[in-house]
Specification:
Elements (H helix, E strand, L loop, with lengths): L1 E6 L3 H11 L5 E6 L2 H10 L6 E4 L10 H8 L4 E5 L4 H8 L5 E4 L5 H14 L4 E5 L3 H13 L3 E5 L2 H10 L4 E7 L7 H9 L8 E6 L5 E4 L2
Parallel strand pairs: 1-2, 1-3, 3-4, 4-5, 6-7, 6-8, 8-9
Antiparallel strand pairs: 9-10
Helix pairs in contact: 7-8
Length: 218
């Protein structure tokens, strides 16, 4: 079961959030109404939270300090706030967050809950990064692992194809360079489509000539 930390000092918002999270199977929501209480919940749960939904304007932490708290414990955070002044906005942009959502419409809370659900799915998502450049593999892998997506790496298309055929893990997406030794990205894509349909496995081709760009191959 995955755990989500929810921090908001508004009783009404917490009530609505509780109603939303109670409907989600296999998710345990832990609630706090202040920075101090959030710190206590993190300590009690030994930092084992898979995501957090945070209000950045708390009575005892009005400038987004709770985001830093989540970052310190490597908890992916979604910010849900009623107000976002320039100072807080600048503070948030310096932190690692998945998104920030304003409480400006009745559906904003539901939207934030759905975003948290997508973040939780990352833990069960595996992607394959294929590139003969160790540097580019590392750059992309670091981005993906930062949001807790599982990454498998391959140096060329042939190695990638072998992994796809033999991996015990279900791979959701292949990120592949186009120009590689042994087997390039185009040939790899053709061979993958002989085995997997589009709804089974997504493919994103990455070209570095002349500029790094991304194209989804259907």
């Amino acid at each position: 079961m995955k755990k989500v930390l929810i921090v908001d000092d508004n009783d009404t918002v917490l009530k609505v959030l509780k109603s939303e999270f109670d409907r989600i199977v296999d998710v345990e929501a832990v609630y706090a109404q202040s920075y101090k209480e959030a710190m206590k919940k993190i300590r009690e749960n030994q930092g084992n939270f898979h995501a957090a939904l945070l209000d950045v304007d708390l009575p005892d932490a009005p400038n987004g300090e709770v985001v830093s708290l989540a970052n310190t414990h490597d908890i992916p955070a979604v910010v849900l706030t009623a107000t976002l002044n320039q100072k807080v906005k600048e503070t948030i942009h310096k932190k690692d967050i998945l998104a920030y959502i304003l409480k400006d419409t009745p559906k904003s809370i539901q939207h934030s809950v759905k975003f948290v659900q997508r973040a939780l799915r990352n833990y069960d998502t595996t992607v394959l990064v294929v590139d003969d450049s160790a540097l580019y593999r590392k750059v992309l892998s670091d981005i993906l692992t930062k949001v807790h997506i599982n990454v498998i790496e391959a140096e060329n298309g042939q190695e990638a194809l072998d992994i796809l055929k033999n991996s015990a893990k279900k791979i959701a997406i292949v990120f592949t360079d186009l120009e590689m030794p042994l087997m390039g990205g185009l040939e790899l894509t053709i061979k993958i489509r002989e085995i997997f349909d589009k709804d089974q496995l997504g493919i994103i081709a990455i070209s570095i000539m002349p500029l790094k760009s991304k194209t989804v191959i259907q």
